[in-house]
Request: fold
Amino acid sequence: MATVVFDLDGTLADTSGDLIAAANHVFRARGLGDLLHPERDALTAFAGGRAMLKLGFGRAGPGFAAEDIEAGYPMLLGAYGDAIDVHTRLYPGAMDAVAALRADGYRVSICTNKPEALARSLLTRLGVLDAFGALVGADTLPVRKPDPAPFRAAVERAGGDPARAVLIGDTVTDRDTARAAGAPCVLVGFGPLGDGVSALEPDALLPDYADLGGIVARLMPVG
Reply:
């Protein structure tokens, strides 16, 4: 069975606003104020919690080190979990595209580098968890993307065959994951990198979710 595996942050949903807010919560607790901007620093938000803390503490001055990042990370996760869907929005047409793929006979699942519990919480609050046959997060397995194992697990847990699967993502991590798994990769053109994803040379670019069905059918026919 052919399977379409989606990344979450920056692919299915713009989660940057809530991620930045959680990082700024950590900085405010240290008396530093809001060090990250919800729009200008969106790309860093999709690189993960530690990347945001590193950027913010770097702006605060030379007195902060790796220990501050590690100490702030659990606080960031807690703040994010408490307000995980305040600013987050699904990209236009995302769930219509998922429904259309399922109607055409594809299995669909999610493979994300967000911790599984947080990903499950977000998808539940957005009301879309049940649309996916499986969810594999950063801590579901001992390894995370770009290791191909989480991608393969996301396919298999949805009832698919890893040899017949496509990855939909938004960053070099997703491209490298797909290449490591020997799978086609589609990168969205409306995520944090915008049209810049073309430089990553994916197998296809997705400018709009309305185009996803045709792209997937070309790369991996359902039959």
About this structure: Residues 3-14+88-219 form a domain with the Rossmann fold fold (CATH 3.40.50.1000). The first helix runs from residue 16 to 29.
